[in-house]
User: What shape does this take?
Amino acid sequence: MRSVIIVLAAAAAMMATSPALACSYSWGPGQSPGEIRKRVDVRKIEGVFRYGSGQGVLDEQGELYRGRITGRVESRTGRVWDTIQLFDQILVECAAYHKPVADARGTFWISRHKSDGRYRMLLWEGEYLPRRNVETIQQDESE
Assistant: This one.
């Protein structure tokens, strides 16, 4: 009987330390990856994304949890687009975040028009580049 209690206590402890995340997510109109690829207000670029900085709310490990990521997309022809993307860790955990969070190469879909001096990153398909030693995530003091 004592071994059964110990096993149940261990199982309860394991469940308490690994919280489950239930994802129930639906795309807004024009926001799914398939719809973004077809939008006329979006520019498709083959190239490289260079991470600039992240700013917002940090989690317990000091990683960005919710905020903004800035960077730039460099096309194969050398043209540069300064970008911004709104980041939310919950979307990453629900497999609904399709934008680079570090240096990457591939295909990028960005807005055709600037907002606050930057193009909005909407979608990415590709691969991450080897990590650079860059620590530029800042806690957003206003949140």
